[in-house]
Design a protein that fits this description.
Keywords: Membrane, Repeat, Transmembrane, Transmembrane helix. This is Rhs family protein. InterPro entries: DUF6531 (IPR045351), PAAR_motif (IPR008727), prePAAR_DddA (IPR057925), RHS_repeat (IPR031325), T6SS_VgrG/RHS (IPR050708), TEN-like_YD-shell (IPR056823), YD (IPR006530). The structure is a single chain. This protein is mainly beta. Among the domains are: 162 residues, Tumour Suppressor Smad4, CATH 2.60.200; 129 residues; 63 residues, no CATH class; 84 residues. 9% of the residues lie in helices and 44% in strands. It contains eight helices and 76 strands. The radius of gyration is 34 Å and the shape is globular. About 4% of the residues have low confidence.
């Protein structure tokens, strides 16, 4: 039984919030002390630290909240408004849930009683009792001493809890970040993660290595990264299992700036069964979930993959080196994922019932967040971000599909960011951007994608067959001439793609569907070594040269070796991917220092010159002190955009943005302003210059420029094909340049303003092998197995039909550096240092060259550790160069000794 609540009965708040914050301070302090301990004792404090965290640091906030919740203080009382007009208890009006108001000293009106009896009603409204909550989070603290109202308790109105769940998440993350010296909570079960892998590899794993490695990008051409090494073909098809993919990088519908930006992108894979709001095969980044089943926890990630983790007890974490991600379980039993760049994906409690728990929040080490509001059924309705960024999702489709995303300001929709249309089966058929343009369209058959089109009408088609019980793409073509046929041998783990030119790509892959070897369209062979964590440890190139890569226990790249045996090494900040030191083959070293939250504090170049960064609490640099001890200053708005910049001379530049976050005005140090007018999606329509001149631009639906009008009113027009490539450029005088492509999308002809045409031909590796110029000169090019140019042949055409020829031969070392250039006149030899900087060029004339007056000559070059040219020696003497710490040339000394 509960004491009946009446007019003027008191309400009270607990000290739960204060207790949580006090516990957080204690927990963070303990975590910091533990982190310092492991740093200072070279790891000897790890066991002690684990004990401290398990019973102290991690538990301190919850203990503080529990302690505070047991202590209450009066906060106000029940008001007359909404009380029963004709039912009195002890001579006072009875209080009613959903109707009666209360006054709280800590919160503004209106405040209503939220809880009430499940089966006792007064004037048709639930009766309120002592202990029932009001909407501000307080509870009714007093009631009748002799009238009791029965029934259960039901919450009729939403209650703002005294301790917001978001704050608990922030505290958990703060403690983990504070303990970064030991990479988070105790990993007592780390070894159990070995062998746990997703059913399919991340579609961008190879590209991630290419982006983080000096050597990979240098020695492997872009098409090979996605094709023969990544296992993709066309637009694209996954050759390891025949599925159709659309990657997030090409499917971004909008992006909103902020301290934690909202980047809205879609991912499609034909083999996915994720229950997406966009239909079968699609997944949005916010549709991630965790489910627990016995001893395992399964993540459905942003590519719809099922990623397994071993379940851990509260207060512990486990690291999955294959995915480079921690599963963290807080002292309160809540689950979150922690990436190596300290992004936390919070899911809350995950019961052991194999039911998916959706993502609730994404937060970084600085406390910037994306918060996801959902219905009781788990449907995402709103995303809010640091800086009062808010978007609302609308579902106006009979199957519950997402139909639009709107930007919200002050609880009002101010613009539509994206719209989605669907076919009769509820599959995504059309995407519209914030300009209102149709930017993507799709067709399906039997549940798989058969066509997709871009904003300009480029159509990509797919034909499917059922092979080994699953639909696979067997043919793919485009409206502009691309065409592929696919074959699969799943027992041998081998696939083939034949393109429109008859060239064949072959890939072999392992049980994890990672490519281990392949033959590219031009016949180049690659062999890939992969360790148990999915890291590429070796790459044998087509010329049999080898790149090797080493990783630490967290799968971070720590060393790479080129074909000459030269090494580049990396050191990292704590357990993150932030690099604190890079050492190059020439001995030069770049260093950086970060604070515990990952903010860059100091970077030091190879000569010891330092640049210092002073940052705000948001992690944004407000002061930059350069190597000459001069300072630059920056001011930022709430969306992490620079609004003012002051250079080292004290001159200011101001920047202004519209309500969409687009830059619309720049005011320089002379107080002159340039303004920009933009389309809703950001394309610049007009630039209004301070002198009154105006530039204007027009765009196609893909957001590409198709015309430019300069300040004099002169118009340059650009025609593009359905792929967005230029086909014709016409200047203000009507002079035009035309471009022509073959079915492999290679430029084969360029016609200039005088109607003269350059023609180009390519080999099967898409390398230029012939150029026919307008002056009747033909140039032919030859390459070695490494793809490096080794011969240039020039063939002229005289007035009398003669064809003079000139050949130049290029000798190269295993990494492609030019060692010698030879022709009929001379031989030139080249020498390099370990930084690949040219040290000397020595020319030796041939007998033919001597007769033509060619002389022997040697040029020598000297550099400092930053790679700056400091001395150039010629037969006429030496030039020397002096620089300041910012690499500005300060003195040029001539061979005569004169200084400039």
């Amino acid at each position: 039984m509960f004491e009946a609540a009446r007019l003027h009965d008191g309400i009270e708040h607990t000290g739960a919030l204060g207790g949580l914050l006090a516990g957080a301070v204690i927990g963070i302090a303990m975590a910091v002390a533990g982190a310092a301990l492991i740093v200072c004792t070279a790891g000897l404090g790890a066991i002690l630290l684990g004990v401290v965290l398990s019973i102290g640091a991690g538990a301190a906030p919850a203990m503080g909240e529990s302690w505070g919740a047991a202590r209450t203080t009066p906060a106000g009382d029940i008001m007359q408004t909404g009380c029963s007009p004709n039912v009195f208890i002890n001579g006072r009006n009875a209080a009613l849930a959903t109707q009666t108001t209360a006054k709280c000293e800590n919160h503004p009106a209106p405040i209503l009683i939220a809880d009430g009896s499940t089966n006792v009603f007064i004037n048709g409204h639930p009766a309120a009792r002592k202990g029932d909550k009001v909407t501000c989070g307080a509870k009714i603290g007093t009631g009748s001493n002799n009238v009791f109202i029965g029934g259960g308790t039901k919450r009729y109105l939403k209650v703002n809890e005294e301790v917001p769940e978001a704050l608990r998440v922030a505290v958990d993350i703060a403690i983990i970040v504070a303990s970064m010296g030991r990479a988070g909570l105790p990993m007592l079960t780390k070894g159990l993660a070995q062998g746990l892998k997703a059913v399919a590899p991340c579609a961008l794993k190879v590209a991630a290595l290419a982006g983080g490695s000096y050597l990979f990008g240098r020695f492997v051409a872009g098409p090979a990264i996605n094709g023969v090494i990544g296992g993709f073909s066309g637009n694209p098809v996954d050759l390891t299992n025949g599925r159709k993919l659309l990657l997030e990088e090409g499917e971004t519908d909008f992006a909103l700036p902020g301290l934690m930006p909202i980047e809205w992108s879609r991912f499609y894979a034909s083999d996915l069964n994720v229950d997406s709001v966009l239909g079968k095969g699609w997944v949005l980044p916010w549709e991630q979930s965790l489910r627990r089943n016995g001893s395992f926890v399964y993540l459905i990630d942003n590519q719809g993959r099922s990623v397994p983790f071993v379940n851990v007890e509260p207060g512990h974490s486990i690291y999955n080196p294959y995915e480079q991600m921690h599963l963290v379980r807080t002292q309160g039993g809540h689950c979150m994922l922690q990436t190596q760049d300290n992004i936390f994906f919070y899911f809350g409690e995950v019961p052991n019932d194999s039911k998916p728990v959706p993502l609730q929040r994404i937060e970084n080490a600085l406390g910037h967040y994306l918060h996801f509001s959902r219905t009781e059924e788990g449907t995402l309705t709103d995303i809010s971000a640091t800086g009062n960024v808010h978007v609302h999702l609308q579902y106006e489709h009979p199957l519950g599909r997402l139909t639009s995303v709107k930007r919200i300001v002050n609880k009002e929709a101010v613009e539509t960011l994206a719209r989605y249309h669907y076919d009769d089966n509820g599959q995504l058929s059309d995407v519209y951007n914030r300009n209102g343009d149709s930017i993507r369209s799709f067709s399906y058959n039997d549940g798989v994608m058969t066509r997709h089109s871009n904003a300009l009408g480029l159509d990509c088609y797919y034909r499917w067959e059922t092979i080994d019980g699953q639909p696979r793409v067997v043919e793919h073509w485009t409206s502009d001439g691309e065409h592929y046929h696919y074959r699969y041998d799943f027992k041998q783990r081998t696939s083939w793609a034949v393109d429109v030119l008859g060239r064949e790509l072959e890939v072999h892959y392992n049980e994890d569907r990672r490519v281990t070897s392949g033959r590219d369209y031009g016949g180049e062979h690659y062999t890939i070594d992969i360790d148990e964590n999915g890291n590429i440890t070796g790459l044998v190139l087509p010329d049999d040269n080898t790149l090797t890569f080493k990783y630490d226990h967290l799968s971070r790249l720590v060393e790479e070796t080129d074909p000459l045996g030269r090494k580049i090494t990396y050191k990292h900040h704590l357990a993150t991917t932030l690099i604190t030191q890079t050492t190059f083959p020439d001995g030069s070293t770049w260093k950086a220092r970060y604070d515990s939250r990952g903010n860059l504090l100091i970077e030091t170049d190879a000569l010891g010159h330092k640049t210092e960064y002073l940052n705000s609490e948001d992690g944004l640099p407000h002061t930059i002190i350069d190597a000459t001890y001069k300072s630059k200053y920056l001011w930022w708005n709430s969306l992490a955009q620079v609004v003012r910049f002051q250079d080292c001379s004290g001159k200011d530049t101001h920047y202004r943005y519209d309500d969409r976050g687009h830059l619309i005005a720049v005011t320089d140090a002379l107080n002159t302003t340039t303004t920009l007018e933009r389309k809703p999606d950001g394309e610049v329509l007009r630039i209004n210059h301070p002198d009154g001149s105006v530039e204007s631009f027009a765009y196609n639906a893909l957001g590409q420029v198709v015309s430019h009008t300069n300040g004099k009113g002169q118009i340059t027009r650009l025609s593009r094909n359905a792929r967005g490539l230029p086909t014709r450029r016409e200047d203000a005088k009507g002079k035009a340049v035309a471009y022509q492509y073959d079915k492999a999308i290679r430029l084969i002809a360029l016609t200039n303003e005088n109607d003269a045409t350059y023609n180009f031909a390519y080999d099967n590796s898409d390398r230029l092998i012939e150029e026919k110029r307008i002056d009747n000169l033909t140039r032919r090019f030859s390459y070695n197995l490494g793809g490096h140019l080794t011969k240039v042949e020039e063939i002229g055409y005289g007035d009398k039909g003669e064809q003079p020829r000139r050949s130049t031969f290029l000798e190269r070392d295993p990494i492609g550096r030019l060692l010698a250039k030879l022709n009929d006149d001379a031989r030139q030899d080249y020498e390099y240092d370990d930084g690949d900087r040219l040290l000397s060029i020595q020319r030796k004339q041939t007998d033919t060259g001597r007769k033509l007056g060619v002389t022997a000559e040697k040029l020598e070059f000297t550099y400092d550790l930053l790679g700056r040219l400091v001395k150039e020696t010629t037969p006429q003497g030496a030039l020397t160069y002096d620089y300041d710490p910012l690499s500005n040339l300060t003195t040029l000394t001539l061979p005569t000794g004169q200084h400039l």
